[in-house]
Every structure is written in structure tokens, then in C-alpha cells.
Amino acid sequence: MSDTIDSRLAALGITLPAAAAPAANYVPFVISGNLLYLSGQLPIEGGKVAVLGLVGSEVALADAQRAAELCAINILAQAKSALGGDLSRITRVIKLNGFVASAPGFVEQHLVINGASNLIANVLGEAGKHARAAVGMASLPLNAAVEIDAILEIAL
Q1: What percent of the chain shows pLDDT beyond 70?
Q2: pTM (2 decimals)?
Q3: Which end of the chain has less Cβ packing within 10 Å, N or C?
Q4: Where are the domains of the chain?
């Protein structure tokens, strides 16, 4: 399956970055039994937060969806690091929790997080179909427009 995942990433023009180091007092992932819990990932690209501000006033919907895609790419990078480089160990994405820095009155958080859901499903196929939450927040760390965490089922 890893070849399939690698070929899907290549077909989408995606090269996974190095997994981001924690920015505070937490670990980037925890493995408990056959579950991999990934800490929240920001839309980091080129070492910096790529999409800043409140969605619905400072950030357009399309840009927020791109931010969610970047979060998903960083989720995959973090999973690859946690799994010793072997993404084929992912048997199922259980849940994504999506947080959107939202201007008052913005109610399309679900459309923003579709950016991540679509990318994960395109890369992982059936194993990428997941439950999720998409919620609005007053602000996020480092003024990021989006943050997403994940729970994955893995082969031991």
C-alpha cells in the first residue's frame, strides 16, 4: 500500500515535509495500542504559517481550504514520522478534528475542512474515509487560519 500512497502523493504533486517539532510542552504524537493520536497541525509551508487570519473577513474560503490541505499534508508527514516512514501501516483514519479561526457570522467551517478531508481520502483511499468535526474558533495559535488534529488506526 505504501507504493500506492507514494504514487498518489506524487500524482497530486505533494512531497511530504519533515514533521514539525512541537511548539510548546506537548509531544507531536502518541501511540496507544493500535491508535495513533496526532497533535494539531497548522498550515505550515516552507517553515512558516502560510495562511493567517480570520476566515470570512481576512481569509477567503478558497484560501482557507488550501490551509486545510496544508494541515492534512502535515498530518501525513507527522504520521510518516511516527510510523518509521511507513504510511502503509495506516489502516483507517478514524477522525479529523478541524478548527477554523472564524470571523463573526462565518458558518462554512465544514467547507473549509473539506480541503483536508478530500486530500486525506484522495491519498489514502478507503482507509482515508473518516468521521470529523469542523468548528469555528475566535483565534488559533500563531494566528493560523486552520488547525487540524487526527486519530488514526494503525497496523502494529
Answers
A1: 98
A2: 0.96
A3: C
A4: 2-15+39-154
